[in-house]
Amino acid sequence: MSNLVQSAKGALLLGIIVALIAVAATLFAEPFYQRIVFIFMVNLIAVIGLQVFMGNAGITNYGHIAFMGIAAYTVAILVTPIAIKKTALANAPFGLAGMEFGIWTSVAIALLVTVVIAFLVGSMLVRQTGTPASIATLALLVIVHVVIMNWVDLTRGPRAIYGVPVKATLGWAAFCAIAAIFVARLFRDSRWGLQLRAASENIAAASAMGVRIKRLRLAAWVLSAALLGVAGVLFSLFVGTISPRSFYFDLTFLTLAMLVVGGVYSVSGAVIGSVVMTVGFEITRYLENGPSLAGIKLPEMFGLTGVFLGVTIVLCMILRPHGLVGGDEIDEIWRRRSQDRAAGGDVS
């Protein structure tokens, strides 16, 4: 019970940080910057979902964005008004061209579809480990992308689905991000999370102790997919227009970079890495367009964001191979430093 309370306190601290960002953006930021903060919240949920599986199972996951795409397309197809479907999705199978669902019904179905697919895929994937498992996740990303690109009647293929009702708000995104933090932290510090991390370090020893590794990996995989599904739903209901490019390698590498920079093995690392990479990404995107600073016109530097992404990952791997916070949570670091200061005061 004490561990549960401590985990909740740590999650609350991170949640307060996220809430303050959302409140500040709502009260003081212009619509353009509010949009940036909303996308940050969506990416944060995706990174936390990635951490749930990758940070606990110890398997590099390249396919997590596939579940974000599945949820985003599902909710978009279900909730788009029939009047728009008659032109955009006139040949949609299963009679979907003549159906229009409510927001909450569409969200529930999208998350259910995402979880079911994750369970079916995960039941096969958890039998692998190490590099073969990572390659399998990459294959999943490519397969989902190919299906979206070629199932033209249902997804419009390479063309964007438009007319999705814009119902998501920054407040809802912040609420979902905070909820994701609590879910990820409680799972990390639960006995299942501890057993899963132990298995990632020594499979033979964990198996000898009776740890059901495959079952725990599957649970982490499905939970991770559910969080990615939430991110996909929010993205679709905020942007209003989605395309296959939104859920492929660019977002995959960005979210992976956020987690690696912050620290793969902690929820705090996911949050801090997301903040650092978002700020850096937006600064380099601004410089990329050749702005004027102090009366000096800077040249256009297209591709600067990609350079920033690569350089940041390389520097992090050299200087901080375990991320900015390593495997510790922010409350654990605070408590340890407080104890060190108290011990130093006692000695003096």
Layout of strands and helices, then pairs:
Blueprint (H helix, E strand, L loop, with lengths): L1 H27 L2 H27 L6 H16 L2 H7 L14 H23 L4 H21 L1 H4 L14 H20 L1 H11 L1 H6 L4 H27 L9 H14 L4 H22 L3 E2 L2 E2 L6 H16 L10 H18 L1
Antiparallel strand pairs: 1-2
Helix pairs in contact: 1-2, 1-8, 2-8, 2-11, 2-12, 2-13, 3-5, 3-6, 3-11, 5-11, 8-11, 9-11, 12-13, 12-14, 13-14
Structure description:
A hairpin with a 2-residue loop joins strand 1 and strand 2. The two termini are 35 Å apart. This protein has 15 helices and two strands. The relative contact order is 0.16. The protein has a two-stranded antiparallel sheet. With 348 residues, it is mainly α. It has one domain. 74% of the residues lie in helices and 1% in strands.
Summarize this structure briefly.
With 348 residues, the protein is an all-alpha fold.
Radius of gyration from the CA trace?
Answer: 21 Å
Q: Oligomeric form of this entry?
A: single chain
SSE pattern: HHHHHHHHHHHHHEEHH
Domain tally? 1
The poorly predicted ranges are none
Strand content: under 5%
Integer average pLDDT? 90
Helix content: over 70%
Count of helical segments? 15
Strand order of the largest sheet: 1-2
Largest sheet: 2 strands, antiparallel
Strand tally: 2
Choose one word for the global shape: globular
Structural class: mainly alpha
**Distance between the first and last residues' Cα:** 35 Å
